[in-house]
Amino acid sequence: QVQLVESGGGLVQPGGSLTLSCIVSGSLFSFISIDELDMGWYRQAPGKQRELVASTTVDGNTIYADSVKGRFTISRASAKNTVSLQMSSLKPEDTAVYYCKGTSSRRNEYYWGQGIRVTVSS
Fold it and tell me: Residues with Cβ < 8 Å from 74, sequence gap 6 or more?
Protein backbone atom coordinates (compact mmCIF):
# COMPACT_ATOMS: atom_id res chain seq x y z
CA GLN A 1 0.00 0.00 0.00
CA VAL A 2 1.38 3.39 -1.02
CA GLN A 3 1.54 5.93 1.79
CA LEU A 4 2.12 9.67 1.74
CA VAL A 5 3.10 11.34 4.99
CA GLU A 6 3.35 15.10 5.40
CA SER A 7 5.54 16.89 7.92
CA GLY A 8 6.73 20.39 8.72
CA GLY A 9 3.51 22.16 9.57
CA GLY A 10 2.84 24.30 12.60
CA LEU A 11 2.31 27.83 13.79
CA VAL A 12 4.14 30.71 12.13
CA GLN A 13 3.82 34.47 12.29
CA PRO A 14 2.70 36.49 9.28
CA GLY A 15 5.63 37.10 6.99
CA GLY A 16 7.36 33.95 8.16
CA SER A 17 8.37 30.79 6.32
CA LEU A 18 7.71 27.08 6.56
CA THR A 19 8.69 24.09 4.48
CA LEU A 20 6.33 21.17 4.17
CA SER A 21 7.59 17.75 3.15
CA CYS A 22 5.76 14.72 1.85
CA ILE A 23 7.48 11.37 1.76
CA VAL A 24 6.14 8.59 -0.44
CA SER A 25 6.58 5.07 0.86
CA GLY A 26 5.16 1.62 0.36
CA SER A 27 5.61 -2.05 0.96
CA LEU A 28 7.84 -4.24 -1.16
CA PHE A 29 5.11 -4.87 -3.72
CA SER A 30 3.51 -1.44 -3.67
CA PHE A 31 6.55 0.82 -3.59
CA ILE A 32 6.48 3.54 -6.21
CA SER A 33 9.14 6.06 -7.08
CA ILE A 34 8.21 9.69 -6.80
CA ASP A 35 9.60 10.06 -10.32
CA GLU A 36 6.56 8.13 -11.54
CA LEU A 37 4.08 10.42 -9.81
CA ASP A 38 2.55 13.74 -10.60
CA MET A 39 2.68 15.43 -7.21
CA GLY A 40 0.54 18.16 -5.79
CA TRP A 41 -0.04 20.15 -2.64
CA TYR A 42 -3.59 21.07 -1.78
CA ARG A 43 -5.08 22.93 1.14
CA GLN A 44 -8.41 23.23 2.82
CA ALA A 45 -9.27 26.14 5.05
CA PRO A 46 -12.17 25.94 7.52
CA GLY A 47 -15.48 26.19 5.72
CA LYS A 48 -13.86 26.14 2.29
CA GLN A 49 -13.31 23.58 -0.42
CA ARG A 50 -9.99 21.89 -0.92
CA GLU A 51 -7.93 23.76 -3.48
CA LEU A 52 -4.77 23.13 -5.46
CA VAL A 53 -1.79 25.10 -4.19
CA ALA A 54 1.00 23.79 -6.39
CA SER A 55 1.75 20.78 -8.54
CA THR A 56 4.62 19.26 -10.44
CA THR A 57 4.35 16.63 -13.14
CA VAL A 58 6.73 13.82 -14.05
CA ASP A 59 7.68 15.96 -17.05
CA GLY A 60 8.76 18.78 -14.76
CA ASN A 61 5.87 21.13 -15.39
CA THR A 62 4.76 23.15 -12.40
CA ILE A 63 1.56 25.02 -11.63
CA TYR A 64 0.84 27.42 -8.80
CA ALA A 65 -2.36 28.94 -7.55
CA ASP A 66 -2.42 32.67 -8.23
CA SER A 67 -2.62 33.33 -4.50
CA VAL A 68 0.77 31.72 -3.84
CA LYS A 69 2.78 32.60 -6.95
CA GLY A 70 6.10 34.11 -6.05
CA ARG A 71 5.81 32.96 -2.44
CA PHE A 72 5.63 29.15 -2.63
CA THR A 73 7.94 26.71 -4.42
CA ILE A 74 7.28 23.04 -5.04
CA SER A 75 10.19 20.68 -5.58
CA ARG A 76 10.92 16.98 -5.55
CA ALA A 77 13.92 15.12 -4.20
CA SER A 78 14.08 11.80 -6.00
CA ALA A 79 16.76 10.33 -3.74
CA LYS A 80 14.51 10.84 -0.72
CA ASN A 81 11.27 10.03 -2.57
CA THR A 82 10.00 13.32 -1.24
CA VAL A 83 8.21 16.41 -2.50
CA SER A 84 8.48 19.68 -0.63
CA LEU A 85 6.59 22.93 -0.51
CA GLN A 86 8.65 25.93 0.53
CA MET A 87 6.37 28.68 1.77
CA SER A 88 7.50 32.21 2.44
CA SER A 89 5.86 35.57 3.15
CA LEU A 90 3.06 33.65 4.77
CA LYS A 91 -0.27 35.35 5.29
CA PRO A 92 -3.12 34.56 7.68
CA GLU A 93 -5.16 33.46 4.67
CA ASP A 94 -2.62 30.67 4.08
CA THR A 95 -3.93 29.03 7.24
CA ALA A 96 -5.29 25.61 6.31
CA VAL A 97 -4.75 21.91 6.43
CA TYR A 98 -2.29 21.06 3.67
CA TYR A 99 -2.51 17.77 1.83
CA CYS A 100 -0.04 15.98 -0.41
CA LYS A 101 -1.36 14.05 -3.40
CA GLY A 102 0.39 11.70 -5.77
CA THR A 103 -1.09 10.53 -9.07
CA SER A 104 0.19 7.57 -11.04
CA SER A 105 -0.89 7.47 -14.67
CA ARG A 106 0.74 4.08 -15.07
CA ARG A 107 -1.20 2.49 -12.23
CA ASN A 108 -4.28 4.67 -12.76
CA GLU A 109 -4.27 5.44 -9.05
CA TYR A 110 -3.93 8.43 -6.79
CA TYR A 111 -2.92 8.72 -3.17
CA TRP A 112 -3.53 11.32 -0.48
CA GLY A 113 -1.62 12.12 2.64
CA GLN A 114 -3.43 12.56 5.93
CA GLY A 115 -2.93 16.32 5.95
CA ILE A 116 -0.96 18.67 8.14
CA ARG A 117 -2.06 21.92 9.71
CA VAL A 118 -0.45 25.27 8.99
CA THR A 119 -1.53 28.23 11.07
CA VAL A 120 -0.36 31.74 10.25
CA SER A 121 -1.10 34.02 13.15
CA SER A 122 0.52 36.59 15.38
Answer: 39, 41, 54, 55, 56, 62, 64, 83, 84, 85, 86
